[in-house]
Design a protein that fits this description.
By secondary structure, the protein is mainly α. The chain has one domain: Four Helix Bundle (Hemerythrin (Met), subunit A) (Up-down Bundle). The protein is built from 4 helices and no strands. The radius of gyration is 16 Å and the shape is elongated. It binds fe (ii) ion (FE2).
Length: 134
């Protein structure tokens, strides 16, 4: 069972980013499943590896768009992205039993605070930049 489905209310209005954010929703559901069932550390590590790959691709997409738009808050935003990446590697070194739940809470909080917060701020300027090009 999925705990969350992607919905238009989660859109930041930049198609390429929305598509990638759907991948984050999938990972929230995967973390939820691992937290609610008996999971082994290998499954959790697999999800963390996926989160790491996601971070590389997704953050570079966002940061490129911010750069193209000349977004003034880019450095601050990049620093928050770096914290996500650091947290993922910290989880990978953590052997505690409640890791799946911690990953689930971490990703859910990221959706609520980062995607629904900071990402919306840069999206305004990125949309303007993309519209001016089309
Ligand atoms: Fe972001």
């Amino acid at each position: 069972m999925n705990i969350i489905e992607w919905e238009p209310a989660l859109s930041i209005g930049v198609d390429v980013v929305d598509e990638q954010h759907k991948g984050l929703v999938d990972m929230i559901n995967a973390a939820y499943t691992l937290a609610s069932e008996e999971s082994n550390p290998m499954q959790v590590n697999r999800l963390l590896a996926q989160m790491g790959r996601y971070a590389v691709l997704h953050f570079s997409t966002e940061e490129q768009l911010m750069k193209q738009a000349g977004y003034a808050g880019m450095e601050e935003h990049k620093a928050i992205h770096a914290k996500f990446t650091k947290q993922v590697s910290d989880f990978a070194c953590d052997g505690s039993q409640d890791r799946p739940l911690a990953v689930f809470v971490f990703l859910s909080t990221w959706l609520k605070e980062h995607i629904m917060g900071m990402d919306r701020e840069y999206a305004v300027e990125v949309r303007e930049m993309l519209e001016s090009k089309s």
